Amino acid sequence: MAPKPNTAVPDYRNVPHSHRLPTSHREVQRTFTKLSRQSLVSLANQWLAKKNRDFCRPYLLGDRGADAEEDDEQYTPAQSYEELQEIYKELAARKGGKREIQDRILEGDWRTGISMYQLATAEIQYLLDHPNSLRWTAKRLAKIPSGKNMALDMEVTNDSEHLPRFQAQTFMANLARELTPLMKAHYLLIKIKTMPMTILRVYIHDSPYSTEASLAIDNGSSDNARAVFFIWPNGSNFVYSSIANHFGQVISDDGRHLRDIVQQAIPKAFSRPSARYQLASTNFTTKSLDALLAYRGPGKSNAASGGWSIFQDHNFSQNALDFITSQNDHGKEKNGQRKDGAVGATAKAGPGRPKRTLEDKETSDAKRRREVAAGRFGSSAQPNDGQGLERVEVRIDDAFPAMPNSADDADTSNISEQPANRNRRGRPSLLDRSLDEIEELEGADAWVPDVRVVFQGSHVFAGVRQLVEQGIVDGEKMPGWMTGEAGVTIGAVKEGRIRTKSGQIPGI
Amino acid sequence: MATAEALDGDISDLRDRIATLQAHRASLTSILLSQPHLPTRLEQRPVLHERNRRNAAKLVQRQSNRNLENVYRACAGVTAYKVKDPDPCAVDNGNVLGVRIDVSVGGRFVDTYHVLFNRPNAAHKTMLKIHKHTIPPCIPLQPLANKWLPLTRKSAEEPREQDLVRFGRHLRKELASWHLRLEALETLQKDAKLPGRIALQEGLQGELEPGMVLNAFVSDDEDSEAEEGANEQDGTPRISSIDGDAAVREITITWSNGTVGIFKVTKDGEVDKAAVRTKEGTRDASLSSQALGRVEGLVRRLEA
Fold first, then answer.
1. Which of A13, A214, B50, B86 has its CA 20 to 30 A from that of A293?
2. pTM summary value
3. For residue B118, is it within any domain?
């Protein structure tokens, strides 16, 4: 690590891991108050591990040195790393409030400041503790077709590669090269062991300097989200991006702009000569990381959602050497019933007793509806599968049903003028018709109103499934996109199907 | 307390026994139902209730269907079937053609993959389009589809023939070779006496760190310093981790002395490129050239 320059000169370096923020810094305070006791202890132990000590130097007794005037200090500095490790192990074993740990870290052992590395690991810890805390947009790294290599790209040979190559060091160097002239940033790239993905956190430091002092300056007025997260699921060409805003913090245009700069640099960092990439939208936004991994992840589930989920697991495709026909069905049915019964019992424990007896003698109608729902949704859209989408928005692009009365024609022409005038406030929606689409509509003689349907809730498709089971939505006439099988959260529907680009294979 | 535990143990033993017996009964049932002359005998013998005869015939029919399907699947590897799309708005009245690929590794069927086709073009009834599939993204489905299942596009100057059979064959090859590489990676980890993937996942619960920091540029080996001392005595660094990417096209091996090697693997399992760097950053050309060859023997060649 280079010695810290005393003078502040604009430079071309990244913010290193070991630069510290004062503990009173707003970002530090926010991040640390969010974390649970258990996570705080585990983080402190990580920071004290031998390999991380360079980046997370605690305040030890040896650091006190000459200016030993602080007698009224609350926490006496520890002698050594080993002593601190012991202290935190003991704290981990004991019960207590989280405030105790938080104060010990911020006012005691790391009173001189929290390093960028610590802040980054703390935020990633929070993200892993609360996988639904941020809103993610899934993008796809798409190769820009170049005329010369077109035929070559299509070829599948013994050593051809169809996914962008990901080498951590090369990627970081490329990304820093793209970004440092525009802003200073701290990067942390971490390969997660519990989930198949790699997280990049970029802490944006909007300043020409990369010194520790410039980091600490809080440009008071603007309360911006400073960090941006990107996630690569292993073995696929998707990228999820998100602004790490704290609860209740608004994402200003500044924050969004900075994220866009980083986002634009990412495909460039992946590119190499004769293989250029760009980010393409996949029309998918959600807060749940599990849902992202299911719909845009590395596994089998990307293009087989909704009712097609039966093809993912073994309940449709039994092992080719499994000849037993009798037991499987029986066992499953019994299990299913038992599970339903248990759910009913726990849900209706107490005052809902008479209701439950009603449910037991399920009418043949209700049974049929449940079977229809099972047929349409397969094993997906269970209320507690953790893969809930919060918002699904579609635009219906079908022509208005023709009226038998021809006098209505005059009216409709008037109505079609209206939406253009009635400008909605805020940013333009992704669903706003493009110029091409408007032109296409004007060529046709049918009136196509701009109708949008928004489903919102904790788990949209589980909700639709319940509506089908209750008989509110007709499970047999319901179009396929209502089961979630299109795998998008925003889209245009024509003739009952979500529009897709031609030649595009779903889920890739 | 002891008696309660003993009772719990007894109960779980009984449950296990019930499960084994049920499995045994099920397999006996399917053997009985597979008897070659059973349908004819059922027809000939008198029965008390006509309904029982019908039920029995149905069961026999189901078993023989399953037997036939499994024989095809086990022998052909790629099989086709028909599906009805429940979506009332589906193209072509919801007729869907499914292609099922069974991958076997080492005498066992490890996984089944599906590709489902529909016919979006009413004018060209034979043109198939991929509707849904369960192929992981690390398999080059799009290039294969571009090659063997071209859609009628105006831009394509010479429309290639659609060839579903060759598409299936190539896709199966990709999937099978991917599973073989996964298997080979596990064998390598076993060769180097490292905990396998399953053991790692089980051990993760107690682990402190959520992941591996990739841009910290320090040794990730927790007790590297202690080991370096030990290594100086016997002079042979050991392999501390073997990692592969999702498609197992690239294997990263880390030694306990900080040497890192990256090995490119072709789809059929040949290490064709290798780069080994020591901790100081110098290339180790001899190790790199030793690594070239079949992937299965990689660890043996490196340790030789």
1. B86
2. 0.82
3. no
